[in-house]
Design a protein that fits this description.
Blueprint: H1 3-20, H2 24-41, H3 45-72, E1 88-93, E2 101-104, E3 107-113, E4 125-132, E5 135-140
Parallel strand pairs: 3-5
Antiparallel strand pairs: 1-2, 1-4, 2-3, 4-5
């Protein structure tokens, strides 16, 4: 089979991968590229098919499971407001279950207490437990009197 036929097959499989995002067609496209190289070197049809089959099998049995595991893991770093979760802040205006103001890394954020029965005084240190929109949900670092 001529090498350009393998290139056409690789392009078609690559387009299918772009539309499906399953990692199957992309690996088959890579195998077709290997077969195109083998065909370009002058190996016969049987060698081309063996190269395609071995490369496809290796991709689907080794590369795809590894890639799927990597994609399923949570990112190591958080971005945006999620990066504030777990950080320490200082209370600038008394924090209750409904309102308050804290300072995190020099920025002022509206806040509310995680425990609705708490009233956190000015100057207390709190931990950011979660972010709801533009409001930080906080809990005091130390027990209040």
């Amino acid at each position: 089979m001529p090498w350009f036929v393998w290139l056409l097959a690789a392009a078609a499989l690559g387009a299918a991968e772009f539309l499906t995002l399953t990692l199957v067609f992309g690996l088959l496209a890579g195998a077709a590229l290997v077969a195109a190289v083998v065909a370009g070197v002058g190996v016969g049809l049987l060698g081309q098919l063996v190269a395609f089959g071995v490369t496809a099998a290796a991709g689907l049995l080794v590369v795809r499971p590894f890639a799927l595991r990597q994609m399923a893991q949570a990112p190591l770093s958080r971005e945006g407001s999620d990066a504030l979760i777990g950080k320490r802040a200082e209370v600038m205006q008394e924090v209750t279950a409904t309102h308050g103001l804290i300072k995190i890394y020099g920025e002022e954020w509206s806040a509310r207490a995680l425990d609705e029965s708490l009233v956190i005084p000015v100057g207390a240190l709190v931990d950011v437990m979660e972010i709801e929109g533009a409001t930080a949900v906080v809990y005091p670092r130390e027990l209040l009197p």
